[in-house]
Specification:
Number of helices of chain A: 11
Strand order of the largest sheet of chain A: 1-2-3
Number of domains of chain A: 2
CATH superfamily of the largest domain in chain A: Ribonuclease III domain
Distance between the termini of chain A: 68 Å
Oligomer: homodimer
Largest sheet of chain A: 3 strands, antiparallel
Structural class of chain A: mainly alpha
Helix content of chain A: 55-70%
Order of helices and strands of chain A: HHHHHHHHHHEEEH
Chain lengths: 235, 235
């Protein structure tokens, strides 16, 4: 084990019986045929289950839909790459020369995969209990500060559920304008509920994002309407 | 614990410290608000991880793509409902009066969910090692007789990968004829590679199934072609 991986082990609070597993977990496929992809597969499974179990225990009031949303939010790539950055994992990765220079999304995805691979390595090295303790340590702050499950529902779905729940008409989404060159387009999207006399607009880098932003604005409007919003007329 | 659940416990090779967990795992939401949906969420996570770990160990030669395919094949609903039928789990389910009569797909899905819920119950009742032993027992025959990972790739994908790998032109899929009434339509679908002078046809209950069947027939043809198939002309 090199000084580097020893330092990382200490920082992770781990003592590897087989340090080669940690080296393997840090090795991207661009650097070697013996890389972290199988460990990532294993670690992804361990992570999903350990987080499921933690949420089951901590959220007795949540149904399975809310538990699923909370889990998806915790184990998604963005969260994992944040954790990797906190651990300065990028300093320890073994990357091929091509990947060394890559930034942005590819880099985030490589970091997230390495977190999963380390989780897989801990499971192989020390068993389930040690792996569980490690994952709960990595996610402690996030598990102690869980969002409300409904915050994790996307605005279009929340708007639709609210309208259906109140016997209100559903919205239409229309793309009003697409501008910019093909690799950097901007979408002006409208969310309209003609029967309520309400419409909102949003501009975003994709149709989907524009619809979500317009739905969020519409949600604010319908939530602020009077108890009989079907009779109200918007501006 | 009723005689019924005692009998099922024995049959599953389990001794529950908290038998209420097994009763809960067998209770569909149509029967009670205290049902198996949260246990199913937990058991789904445990099952996915335990199978991932078993495959990692048994298939050192498989990359993560093959491991994922093997796992998906083992944990999908069809496999779980087969396991449930082997266990005669249907005899032990607590269903609401509406669901008692339902058959077919709904019934299969309820059975599959109950298998996952029982796995979750075993984890809560006896911990990870006991849960792992239980899952490995349930899946023993299937784990001892794993298919080749490439058998699990659908024919359209296999055909495309083969053609790309041999610098051959890709196929077109065309629906030649749709017949029958809307609830029982039949699709005649063609897979054509004009540059190879090859075409196949298949009839199926959906466009997608027809394309897959036509692709499978085309795969047989291209695999039997000479090493320079681009020059050959089909019948």
């Amino acid at each position: 084990m090199t000084d580097d991986t020893q330092r990382l082990s200490r920082q992770l609070g781990l003592k590897f019986n087989n340090p080669a597993l940690l080296v393997n977990a840090l090795t991207h496929r661009s650097a070697s045929g013996t890389n972290n992809e199988r460990l990532e597969f294993l670690g992804d499974g361990a992570l999903n289950f350990i987080i499921a179990s933690a949420l089951y225990e901590r959220k007795p009031e949540c149904d399975e839909g809310s538990l699923s949303r909370l889990r998806a939010n915790l184990v998604r790539g963005v969260t994992l790459s944040e954790i990797a950055r906190d651990l300065k994992l990028g300093d320890y990765l073994n990357l091929g020369t091509g990947e060394l220079k890559s930034g942005g999304f590819r880099r985030d995805s490589i970091l997230a995969d390495a977190v999963e691979a380390i989780i897989g390595a801990v499971y192989l090295d020390a068993g389930f209990a040690a792996c569980q303790a490690f994952v709960l340590r990595l996610f402690k702050t996030r598990l102690d500060n869980l969002p409300e499950p409904e915050e994790l529902v996307d605005p279009k779905t929340r708007l639709q559920e609210y309208l259906q729940g109140h016997q209100l008409p559903l919205p239409n989404y229309n793309t009003l304008q697409v501008s910019g060159k093909s690799h950097a387009q901007t979408f002006l999207v409208e969310c309209a509920i003609p029967a309520l006399g309400q419409r909102t607009e949003a501009t975003a880098s994709s149709r989907r994002k524009g619809e979500q932003a317009a739905a969020r604005a519409m949600l604010d409007i319908v939530l602020s309407l009077s108890p009989k919003p079907i009779d109200s007329k918007g501006p």
